[in-house]
What we know:
It contains 14 helices and 15 strands.
Amino acid sequence: MDDAGSEHEGGWLLVEGETVAAVGAGPEPEAAERVDLHGAVVTPGLVNTHHHLYQTLTRTRAQEADLFTWLRELYPIWSRIDAESEYAAARTGLAELALSGCTTVFDHHYVFPRGREGLLEAEVQAAREIGVRIVASRGSMDLGVSDGGLPPDELVEDLDAVLAETERLAAALHEPGPGARVQLAVAPCSPFSVTGRLMEESAALARRLGLPLHTHLAETLEEEAYCLELYGCRPVEYLDRLGWLADDVWCAHCVHLSEHDIARFAGSGTGVAHCPTSNLRLGAGVAPVRDMLDAGVRVGLGVDGSASNERSDLFFEVKQALLVARGRDGSAAMTARDALRLGTRGGAAVLRRDDVGSLERGKCADFAVWGVDGLELGGADDPVAGIVLAGPSRPDMLVVGGDVVVSDRALVHADEAEIAQAHRAQARRFTG
Ligand SMILES: [Zn+2]
């Protein structure tokens, strides 16, 4: 996943401490320790660009609903979230992601019921324990139903409180620079749950603190109708007016972009988190990713929350991105290597992380080892295309900054069965 897309058949990877010291093929360099990978495919660790970890607590709800109906059913249930349940949810989602080859996770948390402390700290703690990098976000909603928004009034916050809390979390959690394990983004939720003023003030704060900006955008046609009615313009134009089309911003979904919108994204450097499974699950449509890539838009992949994609499997999303691109634009619309690039280098570019996403000298030693000895890859003469087209599968090994996080297809620092059991105990509080 370097600029040239180099592949090293019969290759090796030399790791020193937390970084890649060299990568190549042929005679191996001197090393203190050697691990034989038995002909496996090694890829950079996948980078997830959109998620809501807390939603693992509420899977399979509103099964046939569109986005707005689904949200209206789920908001009151989500208002039960607290630090304990957030911790259980995050451990589950992060474990699923690690077991799908993901080494860097962005999470968009925007449900902050009044008086519940420590929600972001809980998910950061879970990421540290499992061993993956996290870009957490202080999301927000301040446009309740009585002011024309979608969320119930009891779930929206005061603008000043949001900004103060964001600044506190940035000071407490955000690590600048390469190799960061924990970072913070500023992420007001969506045009139908946040006021224009909070969007503008969030952008000003993020730019003062040097944090990236994220929001949901152009997910459904209902959202477009909502923006036309309330703001007199379509979602991308609305974002443009607020100063939100810029190279420190990425938006989730972007299913309903016009040719002009795509050109604006490309020209401004605005990134996109493509979440194909969630978009299909909610019947939202399929984002024009081929057109975005041709225009030069930064695009990465996201599993999205587990209430609209029950599975936090980012490697499945790589395959899904290939399938939906071909379903929309024909069989040449996306190659297996294009799809793999979206899930790795593309995601890193979306998060503005040039320290991850590729295996090159000086990059973080974040990589996934995919065995090719199993039933599903027999007869595959192209193992790279094989792991994508026959996916998803668990990596044999996952390494984050030189630390082995998954070994023999199991978590190293945590117990999968215990996580699942603890999660079920918390999830019971979200039923009925
Ligand atoms: Zn989302």
